[in-house]
Amino acid sequence: MNPNELPQDIQDAIGALADALLADPQAKYYQQVVAALESDPEACALERRFMDLYNRLVTRQQIGEQLSQQEVDPFYALRSEYNANPLVAARNNALGAFKPLLAEAGEQISIQIGLDFTELARPK
Amino acid sequence: MEVLPVLNLPTTHEEIEQIAMKLGDLLREHPIYQAFMRSISDLESDTQVSDLSSKIHTQENALISERGNAELADELKRLNQSLETLPSIQSYRVAETDARAFLNAVNILLSETLKVDFAANAKRGCGCGG
C-alpha cells in the first residue's frame, strides 16, 4: 500500500506523532547529526561502501556460501574505518539515545492494536 | 493580569504516549486491521486447524528424534501442505498480507519524517543498529 492511500485521519495522526517525537531534544540532536552526515560526501561514500559490502556478504551467506578469510579481512578493515568516522559514530550514538523514545511510542501503538507493531510493520 | 508569552517546550513523554495511543486506536479500527483480527479469531476457533497443527507438532518432535527419516519428513511436508489448503488459513494469509502492507505504509510515512526506520528502531531490547 502506498502511504498516500492511508486515510487522512491516520496520516494526520502519523504527522502528530512525528512532530511530537521531533520536539524531543534527543530527536533534534539526531536530526542535526544526520544532516551533518548527509552533507559530508566523504562520510556518505564510506557509508555506501560499507553497506554495499555488508549486504553483498550477508546475501552470499544467506544462500549458503562460505566466505574466505581474504574476503572477510577487507570487510573488517572497512568496518573499523566506518565505525571510526566521527560523523558516523555521532549519528549512531545519537540514534542510540533516540531509540528509547521510539520504543515507548512503538509500545503504545502495539498495546492499542494488540500485536507487535514493530514486527508487523516491517517487510517480511 | 499580564499575558505571558507561550513557552516552546519539548513534548513530554506522556504526551508522546497519548499521541501514539491515538494512532494505535485509529489503526485498530481500520477495516483492514479489523479483518486481520477476525481472521486470527477464526483460526483460533477452527478445530480442523488445531487438529492439524497438533499433528504437525507431533510430527516435528518425531523428526527431531529420528533425524534424516525421509518418511517422517515427507509426512510433515504433506501435513503442512494440507494445513495451507484450509479456508481459514487461506483467509488468514490474505488478511495478514493486507495488514502488513497497511502497517508498513504507516511505518514508511512515519520513518520518512523522522529520518529513521521507526519500526526497526522502536523494537524493545534490541541493541543492534539499523
Give an overview in words.
The complex is a heterodimer of chains A (124) and B (130). Chain A is mainly α and 124 residues long. Chain A has 6 helices and no strands. Chain B has one domain: Up-down Bundle (YheA-like fold). Chain B is elongated. Chains A and B meet through α1, α2, α5 and α6 of A and α1, α5 and α6 of B.
Labels describing this entry:
heterodimer; A: 124 residues; mainly alpha; YheA-like fold; 80% helix; B: 130 residues; 6 helices; 0% strand
The number of distinct β-strands of chain A equals: 0
The name of the CATH topology of chain B is YheA-like fold
Sequence stretches where pLDDT stays below 50 over 5 or more residues of chain B: 126-130
Report helical residue fraction of chain A: over 70%
Radius of gyration of chain A: 19 Å
Strand content of chain A: under 5%
Structural class of chain A: mainly alpha
Q: Total number of helical segments of chain A?
A: 6
Which secondary structure elements does this structure contain, and how are they paired or packed?
The complex is a heterodimer of chains A (124) and B (130).
Chain A: H1 8-22, H2 25-38, H3 41-62, H4 69-84, H5 86-113, H6 117-120
Chain B: H1 13-29, H2 31-44, H3 47-65, H4 70-85, H5 87-114, H6 118-121
Helix pairs in contact in B: 2-5, 3-4
Short description:
The complex is a heterodimer of chains A (124) and B (130). Chain A has 124 residues and is mostly helical.
